[in-house]
Amino acid sequence: MTRVLITSALPYINGVKHLGNLAGSMMPADVFARYKRARGVETLYICATDEHGTPAELAAAAAGQDVATFCAEQHKIQHDLGRRYGLSWDHFGRSSSPQNRALTQRFAQTLWERGFMEERVTQQVYSLADKRFLPDRYVVGTCPHCAYDAARGDQCDNCTRQLDPVDLISPRSSVSGSTEIEIRDAKHLFLKQTAFAPRLQDIINAKKGEWPVLVTSIAQKWLDEGLQDRGITRDLEWGVPVNAADWGPNPQGVRPDAKGLEGKVFYVWFDAPIEYIAATWEWADARAPGGKAADSDWESWWRGPESSDVTYVEFMGKDNVPFHTVGFPCTLIGVNETQNADGTWRLADNAPWKLVDTLKGFNWLDYYGGRFSTTHKRGIFMDTALDLLPADYWRWWLTANTPESSDATFTWEQFQAQVNADLADVLGNFVNRILKFTETRFEGVVPGEGEDGPLEIKLAADVAEKLAELTAMLDAAEMRKACQAVRQLWVLGNQYLTEAAPWTAVKTDRDRAAVAVRTGLNLVALFAKVSEPFIPFAAQAIADGVGESIPGIWPTADTALNLLPAGRPVKAPEVLFRKVEDAQVAEWAERFGGAA
């Protein structure tokens, strides 16, 4: 594959995200994208705000704004915050875009006309107090499976089971809090997910051992419990309108009841994943003269023979996994394929859309063992974190503690210890020591005299080994192990300087000191390049100190210690990382909540 397409789970529009949202999708996706670009791979990293559904309406109402204005403002806030964290999206779109509206309606029409969608009269929750039908997320109650008392009408966030509002115990309206609700009949469209179970099982079987166990086990659990056909329309004002009047007949010659579906919109979890494709269309339009790209400019990443060289990688938290291993694939399979009379499948008469090649699912980041909570003022959110410390502190800690194999826990004490040790003591100290020494004893230029000795030969072998390990871990998007590998490279540099001791050698053997300084400066350049995916702002400052550009070309064993020409001027940057002090930790723990 010569191109890589990366998407991270779309953050909801309803407010600034906490650090767990960053750790479980956007940050690992960004590290992976930056690495792939440094390797010279043509890379497209797409994300967007998820703007439809109940959360948007409720948040807009709470803010006293109409929902369109609220979403526009919140999109800008989330976009700006992402850029301040160094998230290198090629495009950060909006699920309310005209492109997503067109694609969602197009996909729904195809599903109907292929026979994968049908109308059903179902029982829906009606709130007497609110005088309206309540979409699933407007209903909260106790989960019938795990007894979690804040389950939503579409899914329990605690056990991840898919739900229907009528399943909830003691349901209540999330709008008014009223328990005065009735169950009434209402017409909706259903995606016949049951038809896709065999195809989904084939996909999951093929990915076992390749995708994280977390992902395949969640998907398998849904398949084992038996897929359910899914209602994909809602009684909301904000969303992609159902355009049933435009649809042709299904294989039985039946057209949908357009009048009975008037005023309905598509379910947010139907249109939100389609936004990955639509945001790529938005990206192409944004770059095209006149703002209108040719279809081939964006479809080449997503469909047909033109996309055969693309590897598609998704990043998301475990609560999003079911919708990306079941819901979105059902949509794409239904648009791509059709069933023969004997139940087998074949490609339909159109260029197929890509299904995901690699799905990286992550567990949750919690806060002192509990959930982040705006209401209870527990935990730290993306905007507030940047008021305390620069982005690279957060990028490093979140990546080094990516919740891959299990949930991870944020504590101020651990955060302080890790960023002080890794960033200040190991990396920052190394860069400062060698560059300051070069300025004072070697006129601030890379020395050229002297020949490598046993220390340098051993260092080159050790660096080559760790660089290969780092490269392998980043190729596999194993974030914790990648951080361990890059930190071990930093440690090798400190160990080398301690052994080579140019500040001692310069007193008796200037050539020997020059070799140590030249090697140390090349390590600085190496560290800038391999650290850029993790801590891009500090990496840029380090690269500037030795006159290098980043990301540049990813170093190899042959080039790792031969990056700088003799005679190049160098200059120590300002302090890269100031230590987090005990007094700061005490203040922040009191302000944001500490150990319970």
Task: Describe it.
This protein has 596 residues and is α/β, with parallel strands linked by helices. It contains 18 helices and 18 strands. The strands form 6 sheets. Strands 3-2-1-13-16 form a 5-stranded parallel sheet. A 4-stranded antiparallel sheet has the order 5-4-9-10. Strand 6 and strand 7 form a beta hairpin. Helix 4 crosses helix 9 and helix 6 crosses helix 9.
Summarize the structure.
With 596 residues, this protein is α/β, with parallel strands linked by helices. It has 18 helices and 18 strands.
Average pLDDT metric:
94
Report the β-strand fraction as a percent range. Answer: 5-15%
Helix-and-strand structural type: alpha/beta
The helix fraction, in percent, is 40-55%
Low-confidence stretches: none
Report how far apart the termini are.
49 Å
What global shape is seen?
elongated
Report the C-alpha radius of gyration, rounded.
27 Å
Instruction: Give, in spatial order, the strands making up the sheet with the most strands.
Output: 3-2-1-13-16
Tally of separate helices: 18
The counted number of beta strands is 18
Biggest sheet details: 5 strands, parallel
